Amino acid sequence: MKQNGKINIHGPNLCQKMEDNLKLLLVSPLASKSFLGGDFYFRLPYLGLLKVASLTPPNWDVSIIDEKVESLDLTQGADLVGITAMTPAVNRAYEIADSFRSRGIKVIMGGMHVSKMPDEALRHCDSVIIGEAERLWDKALNDCKRDELKSIYRHDNEYPSLANFPAPNWKLYEGKRYLPVHFLETTRGCPHNCEFCSVTNSFGGKFRNRPVDEVEREIQDLKPFEGRFVLKNVVFFVDDNIISNRKHTKELLSRIIPYNLKWTGQASVNIAKNNEILELCKKSGCMGLVVGFESLSQGNLANMGKTFNTPDTYIDVVKKLHDYGIGVTGAFVFGFDYDDESVFDRTIEFVIKAKIDVCYFSILTPYPGTRVYSQMLQEGRIIDHDWSNYNTNHVVFKPKLMKPEKLLDGFHHALKESFSYTAIFKRLWGNGTYKNFFYPMNFGFRQTVRKTIKNKQHFSYEEDPDS
Ligand code: B12
Ligand code: SF4
After folding, report:
1. Labelling 345: which of 97, 415, 416, 433 has CA 20 to 30 A away?
2. 244: closest CA among 219, 263, 270, 264?
3. Among the residues of 222-313, which ranges form H helices?
4. Cα of 238 to ligand 1 centre, how many Å?
5. pLDDT tens for residues 315-366?
């Protein structure tokens, strides 16, 4: 029973309310210490909650609040609250869950972190959806209406097919002041299971592709952004590797050529070996790709299980992509077991020499569910258990070949040097890639870098006298 928009906690259960529409509030909490958390240049829309909204039956009125772009009123009424959370946002997610539950409102949580730590999450919410919402969410909503919510919903030893699901409704994000980009997904899963990555343990070890017809229909229905944006029809393919299944990729890229998109996505270094795909990328409007170089050390790459990456060929990979007008966001991680203090200068030198369009540096972070997490727990190397610091710009573990402070300082040094004005111009000058995309992106990163360094982490771990 609603009174002045607030829920009366002693009111009828949801089953009795079924004649009215029910109110579902979906929340994406802010990871305030995250490099890509609330910063203006990285106000990107969250596809996961749009997918959950699209799976919700029409007798629910759905709204989404993303704390990155708007504030959340914790006193508002709702019949059910759904909260997502990556690890660095989960503490805030728990605060929000506690607050709604204290007023008798049921809370369901989903997403990467709680899927790995359901027992922890159940201390703050009524129910956890483990893994993908598809084929679980409708069951949970039905149970909720009958007041029979289970604590855990999970898939039985399988991952759902990605066919025949409704497209996200982007109207839910209208007026939210996001950067003008639509997120779109064509694949889930990855067989490589790199030691630091959450993808294989969350989405499985096989690439699952969405039917190309459905992706094309989704693209057809996207409305270009209004306003004074230079690029109005930008799509980010969130797939971890746009060339996961070459046949699917070729068909998809051929089909999207007529839609005049400008798109970005992520790909493995192997894309440089496939001229046909590179040509299709160019023709279909690819502005740039995030490429996971990860490390310049073969030892690190062997440890993490990414042996198809060979540092000797990295410069040629970048050059090849540039030949097709495709910019390269080079992703590197610092703090692996073979990294000593020389890794930072070597990487700075490399990104300038290779003319990487944007440098995306991270500090190795042991996310729950990953191999590196189990290994570090077992070796007693984790020094910080505060999830809000698991944001790839804090050091939460003891590196093998340097002190945690040195890893942090080196990371800041690499960011500062790679985003100095001189370095930005040296990296971008003459690349032939989209200037009106990569210059603003670099200046945006530069500002975020300065903020990250200013809000520097302070260490409070105790030094082990034997180490
Ligand atoms: C696009 C992307 C981004 C974008 C956009 C983020 C966003 N808010 O969407 C940007 C670049 C901003 C970004 C930032 C970061 N990211 Co990111 N990102 C991704 C990426 C590549 C795709 C996300 C996506 O859209 N997936 C597709 C959707 C449909 O899946 P989903 O979100 O998981 O949602 C499904 C289920 O999880 C579930 N679900 C999710 N939420 C909920 C909620 C409810 C109520 C229910 C019922 C179900 C449910 O249902 C959905 C449909 O099945 C993933 C990798 C991946 N493959 O997922 C990494 C990934 C999620 N990111 C990761 C990380 C670490 C980060 C950063 C910390 C990096 C950084 N250096 O700062 C920041 C954190 C930002 C923040 N929280 O504020 C990690 C997360 C690990 C973890 N344990 O949390 C991932 C998995 C990458 C990895 N390789 O490990 N990221
Ligand atoms: S880092 Fe890339 S290749 Fe490795 S498991 Fe994650 S998605 Fe797959």
Report:
1. 433
2. 270
3. 246-256, 275-283, 298-304
4. 9
5. 999 999 999 999 999 999 999 999 999 999 999 999 999 999 999 999 999 9
Q: For 283-296, what is the mean pLDDT?
A: 98
Judge if the beta carbon of residue 192 lies within 6 A of ligand 2. yes
pLDDT digits (tens, 9 = 90+) for 219-254: 999 987 887 777 778 999 999 999 989 999 999 999
State the pLDDT at residue 39: 66
Centre of ligand 1 from the C-alpha of residue 46, in Å:
8
Nearest-CA residue for ligand 2 atom 6 is 197
Q: In ligand 2, which atom is closest to the CA atom of 198?
A: 6
Among protein residues, the one with the nearest Cα to ligand 1's atom 2 is 238
* The overall pTM is greater than 0.85: yes
Q: Which atom of ligand 2 is nearest to the CA of 200?
A: 5
Q: Residues 159, 161, 164, CA angle at the centre, nearest 5°?
A: 150
Is residue 9 scored above 50 in pLDDT?
A: no
Closest ligand 1 atom, CA of 46? 9
| Domain boundaries of the chain, sorted by first residue | 2-154, 180-454
The domain made up of 180-454 has a fold known as: pyruvate-formate lyase- activating enzyme (3.80.30)
Nearest CA to ligand 2 atom 7: 240
Give strand ranges (E) for 29-150.
60-66, 80-84, 106-110, 127-129
The answer to whether residues 350 and 320 touch, using CB atoms and an 8 Å cutoff, is no
Q: How far is the CA of 200 from the centre of ligand 2 (A)?
A: 7
**Which tokens sit at 391?**
């944001």
Atom of ligand 1 nearest to the CA of 183: 25
